[in-house]
């Protein structure tokens, strides 16, 4: 069974799911095999590797080794993404991690896998990824991000609420958010609903309760969003967190 080590930015999963559907989503990845080579299909290319970095909004699927893989997920607004794009992607849709980087990450994983609080940081240090980049947004966008994070439930009227809070129109807010963060506001809201759902799972709520508390219309709406963004089912995520 897969296991979620961390739900925050970045999300860290010990994944054993096989053959996720061909998909693209809002998160950039770093994926490291715990066993042999993985085979990834990225756009129309087939890539064989032990470790890989894949940018957000890139069509992909893959076959992991039977031992599973360590998967990191970073949203576009994550400060880690700046480091990832500078160090590895450099304008490309993906980059293969060198074997020595993978070896260092696996060595530290074996030494620190019981240290759930700091494991993600230790592993990312081995591939020289950090969140030290100074990513500053315009004051109104910072206010919006903070407001969304504080919400227990993302209601249908959220965009109206945000516009009223920062005194701009919907069209201006949509343009400004995309310009500043690289994500559409609606995509970010969907991602945050999923994030809140996962946390409610972790706190002991069942699937229906967690989805509704986060702001989804129904568990099926949440499941479709999860599948579209991560290529894995909501029930698999629920089992993982359990």
TrEMBL record:
Assigned keywords, A-Z: DNA-binding
Coiled-coil boundaries: none
Domain of life: Bacteria
InterPro entries, A to Z: HTH_AraC (IPR018060)
GO molecular function (one): sequence-specific DNA binding
PROSITE patterns given in the database record: HTH_ARAC_FAMILY_2
The keyword Membrane is annotated on this UniProt entry: no
Keyword tRNA processing: no
Protein name: HTH-type transcriptional activator RhaR
Species for this entry: Clostridium saccharobutylicum
Lineage of the species this protein comes from: Bacteria, Bacillati, Bacillota, Clostridia, Eubacteriales
Record gene name: rhaR
């Amino acid at each position: 069974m897969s296991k979620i080590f961390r739900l925050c930015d970045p999300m860290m999963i010990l994944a054993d799911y096989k053959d996720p559907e061909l998909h693209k989503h809002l998160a950039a990845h770093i994926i490291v095999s715990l066993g042999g080579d993985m085979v990834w299909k990225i756009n129309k290319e087939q890539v064989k590797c032990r470790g890989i970095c894949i940018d957000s909004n890139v069509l992909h699927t893959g076959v992991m080794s039977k031992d599973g893989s360590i998967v990191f997920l970073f949203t576009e607004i994550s400060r880690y993404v700046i480091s990832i794009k500078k160090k590895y992607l450099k304008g490309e849709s993906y980059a293969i991690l060198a074997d020595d980087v993978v070896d260092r990450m696996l060595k530290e994983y074996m030494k620190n896998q019981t240290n759930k609080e700091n494991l993600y940081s230790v592993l990312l240090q081995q591939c020289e990824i950090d969140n030290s980049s100074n990513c500053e947004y315009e004051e109104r966008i910072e206010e919006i991000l903070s407001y969304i994070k504080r919400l227990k439930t993302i209601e249908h009227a959220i965009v109206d609420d945000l516009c009223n809070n920062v005194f701009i129109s919907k069209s201006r807010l949509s343009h400004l958010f995309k310009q500043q963060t690289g994500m559409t506001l609606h995509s970010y809201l969907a991602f945050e609903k999923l994030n809140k759902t996962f946390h409610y799972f972790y706190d002991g709520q069942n699937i229906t309760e967690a989805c509704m508390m986060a702001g989804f219309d129904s568990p099926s709406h949440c499941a479709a969003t999860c599948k579209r963004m991560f290529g894995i089912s909501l029930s698999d995520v629920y089992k993982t967190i359990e």
